[in-house]
Amino acid sequence: MPDRITPNDLAAELGVSTSIVRRWLREQVDRAGETGPWLIDEDLAGRVRAHFGATAAARAKRPVNCTVDECGRAAVARGLCRMHYNRWDRHGSTDRFDAADHQRAKTHCPHGHEYTPENTLVYPSDGRRRCRACRYHRTKPPPR
What we know:
Strand content: under 5%
Order of helices and strands: HHHHHHEEH
Number of domains: 3
Structural class: mainly alpha
Helix content: 40-55%
Distance between the termini: 99 Å
Largest sheet: 2 strands, antiparallel
Radius of gyration: 28 Å
């Protein structure tokens, strides 16, 4: 029986992750119900080498580190590390820290009162803001 190669061996040889080699194999090869570890013959290994050799130039152009200033993490997608990519995916920007930014950007309460230091009650536990004027009118007893 000729020597068989594993996806780990090919990935190490080509300088790519094992998961991307396995993904390419799943997309390209019909195993016809065969289970167990991948054992790749020379013909299939040649196809894998050809594919990843052809895409090497595109991989070389990708940034190695995150493109966000002062972030030294490895880039995984769009030139961003996992954390900055998730922020970009959720908020459309990498500089947002949470989903409450749109609330903090509001300058007036729903009833039109301005959020000033004198008119704003801030809960220290989580930073939520409440309008003091609305709170006063809500707790004031109705006229008789």
